[in-house]
Amino acid sequence: MPASDTAVRAPAPPDTLKILIAGGFGVGKTTLVGSVSEIAPLRTEESLTAAGLDVDDLDGIEEKRTTTVALDFGRITISDDLVLYLFGTPGQQRFWFMWNDLALGALGAVVLVDVRRPKVSFAAIDFFERRRIPFVVAVNGFHGEHPYPVEDIRDALALPEHVPVVLCDARERESCRDVLVVLLDQLIASAERTEARV
Amino acid sequence: MSSRPSAASEVSGGDPAGRLVRPFTLTGGRTRPSRADFTLITTVTAVDPPPAGAARPQPEHLRILRHCARPVAVAELAAHLDLPVSVIVIMLCDLLEAGRITARPPREVSGVPDLELLQKVRDGLARL
Question: Which InterPro entries does this UniProt record tie to the protein (chain A) (predicted)?
């Protein structure tokens, strides 16, 4: 790939990284992305059409044959030469096939859990666990309230000890930043263990 | 580079026959990129000035070139131009082949973790 070219006068392109923001439908993924992103969350869309439907029949049933898979994402410029992207994964479980490809090359993931509906995020936890992709669980309090202690949530989600659980408010920039820092701390600790073994 | 996942596969999951047809009129009916160099966070930059003897680009290609005068990620291009990523990638392949853009793959993160990189990201986040 022509990564450099003498004809290019634009600034050198930065290195890019990505972190996934996962969790069930409606848990606050896009809210979290928007809270820490330096740009308003952007959306890319893919239209998937159910096969075999009558194309001539357009009477208000477009939703039935077309499913729009949307990815919301934001950007955090770490430095002149390093940019981090946050991608909100599609909440609907039937789009699990997208997660595989999205997860490729990701630093790690945040699984957002709605304290009132923890079950909707089980699939995401399971996904990252099975693939050994590092993740943290961030419990998004409804209106920022946290009625349950971390250990109760850890038990309810049957999370192993090595998975950090943090309480957060997806609407608050500092709170979301702290979630990402916990993920990075986990990645750093893991990298140090790897280095120590080498 | 063939091992790199394409942005098209990142979002389509496979079956191009099951898609909406209209955006692919922009790509001459092709539904697969000819190169798999473009992920969602691959950055692309227009080559300026364009290579000598370059053919005049199609209007949609021109729109892309205007949006990547400075380096921009594929996902951002798709969002700004309001086109599916898979369509953008096909046109980026055309532009790459014509020498009109350069593409930079994302930072490799698989394999041995890069402690220095992780620390840099952590420090950057902590400054937010």
Answer: Gliding_Motility_GTPase, Gpn, P-loop_NTPase
Peptide bond into B49 cis (omega under 30): yes
- Hey, where are the domains in chain A? 15-192
* Residue from A136, A114, A110 nearest A18 by CA: A110
| Confidence (pTM) | 0.81
Domain topology for A15-192: Rossmann fold (3.40.50)
Is B22 inside a domain boundary? yes
> In this complex, which of B106, B108, B121 lies closest to A78 when CB atoms are compared?
B121
Scanning A116-145 for CB atoms below 8 A from B yields none
Contact A25, A114 (CB under 8 A): no
Summarised one tens digit per residue, pLDDT across range B86-119 is 889 989 999 998 899 999 999 988 777 899 999 9
Containing structural domain, residue B75: 7-126
> What's the number of domains chain B is made of?
1
The burial of A138, by beta-carbon neighbours within 10 Å (0-12 exposed, 13-18 middle, 19 or more buried), is given as: buried
Beta bridge partners of A140: A114, A168
